[in-house]
Each structure stands twice: as structure tokens, then as C-alpha cells.
Amino acid sequence: MNKLIVALIAGTFAAVAGAQAPAPAPAPMTKQEINKEKAKTVDAVTKAGAEGASTGSAADAKGSAAAKATKGTPKALPTKADKAAAAKATTAAGAEGASTGSAADAKGSAAAKAEKGTPKALPTKEAKREAVDTATKAGATK
Known about the structure:
The chain has 142 residues and is mainly alpha-helical. Helices cover 79% and strands 0% of the residues. It has helices at residues 2-20, 31-70, 80-115, 125-141. It starts with a helix and ends with a helix.
């Protein structure tokens, strides 16, 4: 029995030690193999760069054509006086929009002040209770 236990412990020790051993190193690459790998990498990068460059130059050509087409057209506001007049008109339009908003606010305030002195429809608690009771009875009979 003791020999069996010793054999099991020795076998376990050997298995654990073998599992922890480093993997065998790969065979060293020759200079030719290294150069081939580098060439593949360079080719892949070059192809990717060439594809990106071709799409970029096409976009650049479109932009250049659009710029040439609009080169001779006159500007919308060629002088400083025209620009100032446009800015003044825009500012006036904005001021008009703001004044109409405050005018509407003023109308609402005036209407609220006018209604402030009018008595409520049901001034006391008793009148409110009677109205609720009446409405409840009318709803129950339906």
C-alpha cells in the first residue's frame, strides 16, 4: 500500500512539473523568411495607403471643380455698406419680434388686472358643498 501511495505522489509530481515546463522555442527564422514577412507587411500597408489616397484625390478634385465653378460669381454683399444695411434690417426684424412678445404679455397682464376685482362664482365653503352635492346627486340618478 505504501508503495502505491509513493508511486501516486511521484506520478503527480512528475505531471505537475511537466505541465509547468516552458513550451519548446520555435525554430529560429532565417533572414530570407524575415525579409518575406516584412515585404508582405509593406505591401499590405502600401495597398491600404494607395486606396485611401485615390479616394482622397477624387474628393479633392470635386472640391477644386466646385471652387472653379463659383469663382466668377459676384458676392451677395460686396461692400461694407451692403453688409451694414443687411445687419440693420436683421436687427430691426429681431426687435419687432421681441416687441410683439412683450405686447402680448402686457395684454395678458391687463386682462388679469381687469378680472381681479370680480367675485368668484362660489364664494363660501357652503356654496361649494351644495354645488358638489347637487352634482353628485345628479350623477347618481343617471
